[in-house]
Amino acid sequence: MASSVVCQYPTKAQLQVQNFDDENVVTPEANNGKKECNVAPKDTSPTLPGWYADVSWPGEAHIYKMEKIIFQGKSEFQELLVFESSRHGKVAILDGYIQLTENDEFAYQEMLTHLALCSVPNPKKVLLVGGGDGGILREISRHSSVEHIDICEIDKMVIDVYKKFFPDIAVGYEDPRVHVHIRDGIAFINSVPEGTYDVIILDAFQPMGPIAEVLADNCFLDSVAKALRPGGVLSAPADSLWHKNFVVAETIAKCKNIFKGSVNYAWTTVPTYASGVIGFMLCSTEGPPVNFKHPINPLNTEQNGVAKGPPKFYNSEIHSAAFCLPSFVDKDVDPKRC
């Protein structure tokens, strides 16, 4: 999953071999020739040996006690680190950005998925750009109306590592409706016919906000809007409402100019991320109206697809509450309170 969190990535010189577990080695053969790394940290920080420093915002840091490195490898696209933490389970770091922890990944994955899919009737065709960990695929699988799921992930290494070390998350790949495309997401979206998808979920870009390249690229968002059917929905991560440079109203206005339908900002708590909060932009194209605040396609918790149980975080009440904004944000967005 994408995040605006910036991390202090441990160098090879900062790692010493110990606690070697040959059952958890990704060999060069299994990893398509990528270099294996299965070592425990000894000095990942000059002042906090054995801890991983996540420098999220200026003047702040979130640190994790590292029990051992499970995987460290680099593909032609990016570098991936997986380590076992003492309290958050396994943690994945991609190019210095925290992607997820086993402790709370479900909050982000469930909300990014169901805020969109539960807001439209009978979604049938869904595109996921990024999301190589498989967690969003797991959540999409709960929707029985969906007939076809495309995932576009640029890096096969990411998929392989998650399948090996995060099987309860990567279980989403077991859904027979899933079709995997190993290629650039922007090029893929530009290649599909207009009106192809009911829902598109972006999970491969910086969150929409003051530093979001995806929001600045109107051509890309235009392509996303064209790939959606009338009344189709985009779901994408957005900056935390605590980010002092993030103006929710401005982001909503920019998205309305492109998508022409309903646009709303939602948020939830994910302890792993900076400030403990992550936002979401929900945008619909011009066509049948979409009311994101009042879901019309509720989940059937007795039909969980390939997931190993019902959602842990999302429910209809949480869905509606996610669009209720604090006073310091709400006054700039909508004078009508939830």
Automatic annotation (TrEMBL):
Pfam families: Spermine_synt_N, Spermine_synth
Family matches, as InterPro entries: PABS (IPR030374), PABS_CS (IPR030373), SAM-dependent_MTases_sf (IPR029063), Spermi_synthase (IPR001045), Spermidine_synt_N (IPR035246), Spermidine_synt_N_sf (IPR037163)
Coiled-coil intervals: none
CDD domains, per database record: AdoMet_MTases
GO molecular function (one): spermidine synthase activity
PABS domain sequence ranges: 49-285
Keywords: Polyamine biosynthesis, Transferase
GO biological process: spermidine biosynthetic process
A single cellular component GO annotation: cytosol
Residue numbers annotated as active site: D203
NCBIfam families: PRK00811.1, speE
Family statement: Belongs to the spermidine/spermine synthase family.
Protein's recorded name: Spermidine synthase
Source organism per UniProt: Vigna radiata var. radiata
Lineage start: Eukaryota, Viridiplantae, Streptophyta, Embryophyta, Tracheophyta
